[in-house]
Amino acid sequence: MNLVLQGVGDCKARLERIGALTASANLTWLGERALRCEGIAFSPALRQTLEVAAQAAQLDATYSIGLHKMSDYKLVAMDMDSTLIIIECIDEIADMQGLKAQVSEITEAAMRGELDFAASLQRRVGLLEGLDASALERVYDERLQLSPGAETMLKAVQAAGMKTLLVSGGFTFFTERLKKRLGLDYTHANELEIVDGKLTGKVVGGIVDAEEKKRTVERVCKELGISPSQAIVMGDGANDLKMMSISGMSVAFRAKPVVREQANVALNFVGLDGILPLLT
Q: Nearest CA to 32 among 58, 64, 5?
């Protein structure tokens, strides 16, 4: 087994300290903030020790069998809200109605997997009925921020020739703008119905739920002539698990516990560019 440890800021001493616990004879620095420990004699007890120590040191720890290269993958598929960007767009739109707390509570429960996603989305969108559509532009201009490391990660994978897919249970208003801004290849999201400049509280067409996210990844892979095992899929909520489950590398980014437990990679401290040291 190999283990990659990563941190933020001045973390070299912490990396060295946790790396020493692995008893690896081959430690390779992957830049100033990432250390690969190769040939670890793996055991459940050692893994638990390392994970507890890494968490306490605010380091991300990723195990792998063998080494992975950028060329092993052809597609990066990303969730949008709380993954590529730091906000939940629907919560910020609801704030324009004075309903952020109410909508955020539903969003959180849906992301933890406690509510049916499609039903919860219809309920949340319904609360937006009558809101002026200009609120969407305000959210994009005033509140939407990319997650740490997003641009660095995208530039690196695009330079390597990988295609990019943004698939979201959020809204096309935002995915289409991000597609243009970031040079993404594919996007798929829900479309909010707007009549006479106001939100109707409804979604046009089918809802992009967990199953549709999975189908979208499969569809894009088929179009590219690749296997889903050649895709890296990133997400944070329970509705991302199905698309993550078919990927070659599943990445839980600042994710809910249910997602972290099932992903190959969990990035809790470093940015989205934390996948890059894993692909060397």
A: 5
Strands 198-204 and 186-195: antiparallel
Cα–Cα dist 178/144, whole Å: 10
Instruction: Quote the longest CA-to-CA distance of the chain.
Output: 67
- For residue range 149-196, list pLDDT tens digits in order: 999 999 999 999 999 999 999 999 999 999 999 999 999 999 999 999
Q: Which residues pair with 202 in a beta bridge?
A: none
Question: Domain check: are 254 and 132 in the same one?
Answer: yes
Chain centroid to Cα 108, Å, comes to 16
How many structural domains comprise the chain? 2
Assessment of whether the complete model's pTM goes beyond 0.85: yes
Residue 95 and residue 15 share a domain = no
pLDDT digits (tens, 9 = 90+) for 257-270: 999 999 999 999 99
Which residues are part of the catalytic machinery?
A: 79, 81
Strands 163-171 and 75-78 turn out to be parallel
Claim to verify: residue 127 and residue 139 sit in the same structural domain? yes
